[in-house]
Each structure stands twice: as structure tokens, then as C-alpha cells.
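Ticket #433: bound-state structure for pyridoxal-5'-phosphate.
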Amino acid sequence: MSPYNPLADALNKDLQDGAPQIYEMLSARGKSIYFPSRGILGQTAEAKSAKINATIGTAFEEDGSPLALECMEAMVNVPSESFLYASSYGVQKLREEWKRLLAVKNPGLRGKPCSLPVVTAALTHALSVAGYLFVDTGDTMILPDLYWDNYELIFSEACGAKFSFYNTFIDGGYDVAAFSRALREGGAGKKIVLLNFPNNPTGYTVTEKEAEALAAAIRGAAEEGSRIVVLLDDAYFGLVYEEGIARESLFSLFADLHPNVLGVKLDGPTKEDYAWGFRVGFMTFGFRRAGEKQLKALEDKAAGVVRGSISNVPNLSQTILLKGYTAADYEAQKKQKYGILSGRARKIRAVLEKHPEYAQSYEAMPFNSGYFMCVRPIGVAAEDVRRELLAGFDTGVIVLSGLIRLAFSSVPADRLETLFENLHRAVQNLRRP
Ligand SMILES: Cc1ncc(COP(=O)(O)O)c(C=O)c1O
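RESOLUTION: The complex was predicted; output attached.
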């Protein structure tokens, strides 16, 4: 007898019938989760157009409009329907619009099988939904040794994952060989890979060639029998500033790479559309020869995790985003903001070129995209430099993995020169006996 709820059994059967290898990638919790389509939500949906509807726990005025406080309604320029709950899958039109945008932003994705995006409470939540679905206690996750530190709470603390780190950079580029070695460690089996481009903290995105090489390594391991979940943290998607760098999400490669490779794209407007506090993100699944039933089963499981954790994502944020994406000036405004960030990245290159003497104090790490870049201080500890910058130069930076991370996203262009000069002087101060 199955240990699962019959609704989970039905989703599992769809996966086992059409893509048993994908079913095997699920964690124990991932196998067990389902969307409660027959509970309150299902019964509410069935009663949607009933004359007397006493189903859902929201409130309506005597005339049937949402019962909302007028002082709050007056503050937002959207219909009061956005005061009601959104679906646990997300606002349907927003999901469709994001999928349309995915194909526009990633031409290589066209014609490849992928799910409708499920809305999450931004990337952090999307990552944690992915952890729920795919990571069991003791599972190893493969990631570069320069990574966003919140992965520790999301995967290590909450899911019991172990991290297998590979070296990030070699000779100014991505260490694909180190990645391949980490992937092959322990022979064939279930593998969980986490890739993040543009990367936090380094601001690095792989070149097109490196992206192909990563895909080739994953295809090779899949051909040898490994089943590989590739989680793509695309938080900073679209912010690439140099030629020859992968402009498309690597999801375009993984959605169609090999039946043993499941691409899970985690993205959203927080960084991409500069709407950090809206707390909206998306989770999209794709794999070679995916059928509609299997993709829907994965969507249902993800929506089940959303339902069981935060119930649903703020309707107000989703409504504003949908209006924004369909606004006439959306593209032009986005281009203008991109110009601000890419201008700062260019300025940093110019400052470093103008001041070769800074190379005595710190080494700039490879960067070409995103919100950040890193430097490695020479001969002094990064944490000492951070303290010296704060105490003596009124300058705040972050220390991560022995590097100093500079968020140029939040520094106006006319202060960049001073930032790098301060760094140089802080290192020189620390070196003085
Ligand atoms: C690599 C990376 N992923 C995810 C996130 C989380 O983004 P969100 O605000 O959408 O949860 C961040 C935020 O700093 C990040 O740097």
C-alpha cells in the first residue's frame, strides 16, 4: 500500500508513467507532496459561479465587491480584487506573461518543453521550494566555492544537504574541469547541481563557450546513467555587460539536454526588474521529452509546497507586475536602468586601468555581469580591510570567502573612483608597521 495521499499517488503515477527518471530525482518530501485540489481550494473552485457562495475565507461587501478598507484601497491604483488571495500557483495571467517573456529573453528556449512558471515569494522561497522537492537529508549538492551564503540556511540547515564545492576560477575563467570532477565524484547516481549566473558574490557569468562546456559535462554524466537536477539561480538574469558572455539563461540548454537532466529555473523580478520588496519569483521546470502531464505534476507539487508554506504570494505585487510587464514603456525603462548598471561596470574597468598601482593592494576577480564584483586583498586579511574601510574611510563592504564584495549596484558612478582609492589606501594603512 502506498504511504502517500491519493493525490500524491496520482501525480507520482504521471511522473512514473512518463518520466520515471524524474520521479527518482524527487526527495522523500517531494514524492509525498501534492496540491490539495479536493480540499477547501477545490471545493471553492467548484463553487466559483454559484449564486450563494459561502466557501472561501475572504470577505465581500453587500454588493459582492471585495470588502477592503477604503484608506488602503485609496493608496493603490489597482482594482480591489488584488486584496483577495491569489492562487497558490500564482496569478494565471502573470504566469503566462512570464512564460512569454522567458521565450522573448531566451530565444533558445523556443519549442523546448517547459512548464508554466509557478509563482513563489521571490528567489529565496523558490530555492527553498526546490530544496523541499529535490533534497533529502545527507544529499550532496554541487556548487562553486564562491556562492551566495544564504544557500547554507536554505539547503544545509533546512534540508540537511552536504555541499561539495569546486574551485570557481582558473586563469581568469570558470573552472569547468573542476566542476566536471565534482560531478563525477562517487560515480553515477542522483546529482544536484546549483548554478548561479550572474553570480553572487563575483558578478561573473560564464562565456558562451564555458556554458557549452558545462552542458557537455552534464550531458556526459547523464549518458553514464546519472540523474541530474540542475537548479539555476537566475536572480540577476539579463544584467550581462560584455560580449561573448552567455546572454541566455542556461535553462535554454538544460530544458532539452537529456532525459536524465531536469532543469529547474528559479528567477523573478526582485533583481531583474528592481522590485526587491514585492517578493515575487518563479519556478519553471524543463527536461528533454517532457510531456504535459509530467510538467503539470511538477507544477502541482511545487504549488503544493507553496500552499503548505506561505499559502500564496501577495496578489497586490503580482497585479502590479502584470501591469508593468504590459506597460508601453516597460522595455525602454528597463533598458535605461540597465544602462546605469552597465555604465558603472565600465567605469570600474576604467578606474582599474587608470590605476595600475592598485594591483599592489588587491586583485580584481573576474566579473562581467550582475550587481557585484570582488577583489582579493594582497597580504592582509579581508576582514581587517573591511574594518579599516569602515573606521577610517566611511566605506562599507562585505567580506565573503576571503574576498571583498563590492555592490556597485548601490554606489553612484561618481563615487566609484573614491571607493577603489579607499580600498587601496586601507590596504596600504594595514601594511604599515
Ligand atoms: C544569488 C542570489 N539568489 C537569490 C537571492 C534572493 O533573491 P530574492 O530577494 O528574490 O529572494 C539573492 C539575493 O541576494 C541572490 O544574490
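RESOLUTION NOTES: The mean pLDDT is 96.
TICKET STATUS: resolved
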